[in-house]
Amino acid sequence: MAEIDALSATERIGRMFLGKQLPVGLDENVRIALRRMAVLEANRQNYGLIDQIQEWLSFIAGLPFYTESPDTLSLENAREILDQGHFGQELIKKRVLEFIAVQKLTGGNAHGMVLCFIGPPGTGKTTVTRIVADALGRKFERISLAALGDMSQLRGRSRFQADAEPSLILKAIHNAGTKNPVICLDEIEKVGGEGMLGGEAMAAFLEILDPEQNSHFIDHYLDFPFDLSKVLFIATANKMLGADSPVIDRLELITLPDYSRDDKREIGKRFIVPQKMQEMGLTQSGVTINITEDAWDKLLNPFAWDSGMRTLQHSIGQIFYKIARQVVETGEKNYTISAANIKDYVLV
């Protein structure tokens, strides 16, 4: 540890590149930057520029130019993961299994349409995307496009600028540590509106999603082509994209249907209740909770329905918060929620 502390910043950064394979051309850029950093450090000049170079080199050292995770392309395993993680939606699961089958036949190199799940909030779009990553055995990253502020978030800002920053795409790949993660482009319709950002952003996505172009994606911060062809992009949208959107031809639009009353009941029992009990420490404390069928009828009151699961999740959460308080105050571990007492726990 003392030896590392005694190293100069240039030496510490240089060690990050020992044994790391870099694309031809970028390796020379790194050597030039290290030499420049060494001169500035030796002459005790421009510490701000030293920090700037150091951050750039550290980011490059963490980029997986040649690191891929092996795909798990077993349809049986994928079906099991889909069933465990998502109830119902058989048409969606069928399409995902077809997609994985094509990946298997092509050795994980299929470059077809980008899947885009469409449905109101709470219908499980992002969850399905994460399950696809699990089924393939790939790392998962999510990019929220609802908060997209300007084009630099898609293209990156030059490392020579004061506010230099990589693009959201390269940040996601850096975080994943592999060059073939599943990246969820969440709420892609939010960047398709009127104005400069909408048009330019969709043009950028056209380049990012097009296999003919994305093998040489230019991030202005990296300032060197990065191969995105191994990334599996999956988009989500709350509503249908406009027909004039330049990226719509690259997307296979799959609508997630609203959950039926019976679907919500089963999802509530199988997934939401166990998850909420775990999150709130009730399971670990040995608490048992029985929600009777007439109580479920109240929770699933049509006037409280939404298209997805958000309302039901919030209602069950409110019940369990009150139970958690009672457990701490009274020590009682067994609870039954029925139509007779449900209004003591939640407004239905």
Can you walk me through this structure?
The protein is α/β, with parallel strands linked by helices. The chain has three domains: 2-61; 75-255, Rossmann fold; 261-344, Helicase, Ruva Protein, domain 3 (Orthogonal Bundle), CATH 1.10.8. It contains 13 helices and nine strands. It has helices at residues 2-6, 9-16, 26-42, 47-61, 75-85, 90-105, 125-136, 152-155, 168-176, 196-209, 261-279, 293-299, 310-330; strands at 114-118, 140-144, 182-186, 217-219, 224-226, 232-237, 251-255, 288-291, 334-337. It has a five-stranded parallel beta sheet with strand order 2-3-6-1-7, with helices on both faces. The chain has a two-stranded antiparallel ribbon with strand order 4-5. Strands 8-9 form a two-stranded parallel sheet. α3 (26-42) runs antiparallel to α4 (47-61) and α11 (261-279) packs parallel to α13 (310-330). The longest helix has 21 residues, at 310-330. The radius of gyration is 25 Å and the shape is globular. 29% of the residues are buried. Mean pLDDT is 83; it is low at 1-6.
